[in-house]
Amino acid sequence: MNVKAYRSLLRRWLGITAGASYYHVDQPVGKRFDRSSVKGYYNDLTGKADWRGEADEAGMPVNVLTNGERVYFPITIAQMALGVHDRWLETGRADLRERFIALAGWLERNQDERGGWNNPWIHLRPSCVSGYSAMAQGQGISVLVRSHTLAAGDHPLDRARRAFELLVRPVESGGCSYLEGGNLYLEEYPERPRSTVLNGWVFAAFGLHDLSLATRDAAVEDALTQTLATIAREIPAYDCGYWSLYDRRGAMASPFYHRLHVALLDALHAITGVAAFDEYSALWRGYEGRMLNRSRALIVKMRQKLKNPERVAIAR
Description:
Layout: H1 3-17, E1 54-55, E2 61-64, E3 70-71, H2 74-91, H3 94-109, H4 121-124, H5 134-150, H6 155-167, E4 177-180, E5 183-186, H7 198-215, H8 218-234, H9 255-272, H10 275-288, H11 291-307
Antiparallel strand pairs: 1-2, 2-3, 4-5
């Protein structure tokens, strides 16, 4: 990596650490979700409601990559929609309701014939075997289920069911999951071998939870039960003894993702009551409270980033 690339990476990290990055605003536990009905989202995405970047003529966010490419990123749009929806629940403002409906409409119109949304992994994660993502599928489902509660007819719910089918389809068949020995892994990045990013897996599980509440479909409930049990069994593998790991390949979580892991486990415990989620949330919250742990994890993370720099990232 040349000096210019090092400086660029350092500037990006300083922006993230300072809270200046739209993509790394704190996302604590949501304030308005209910374990037995679809209401608010499970972590607080209201900071994503105020878009800071470019937009198309319809006001939809457009991401600009460091290579100059301009792309639609379904995860950006879904997270913004969920943040807008929570802000609407908080304020009751009609403009926020209409904004949510417009964002949900983009997801409906841009869902492909397989039930998926194409993400720009060709630029951001070239090791992926497709443009699909369990995180995009899960958060798209969460948006569509909420859209269903606001709109007449079952069209958004039908779209959510199609998204579910692709979400749980095996990666080798073009989907976003791995089924291994009764364990169901939902892959933010469909890769071989699997990387199983923790936050993307949990976001996908939230989508299953929402669809289960909305439909009471046995197949959805079975997939949800199976993947939640898998997360509970696998969560110790994301603990390195002083910090949490981003994925199963040993990538250290950044400070942002470590805090997000704690919030996601808190939300999982709130909707499931599973003790393992509460146990590891408390453990990882304790890690964050120790300066030595924070410093050690940050040094390791920076070394990993410098050793394997991203070729292309989201600039804005």
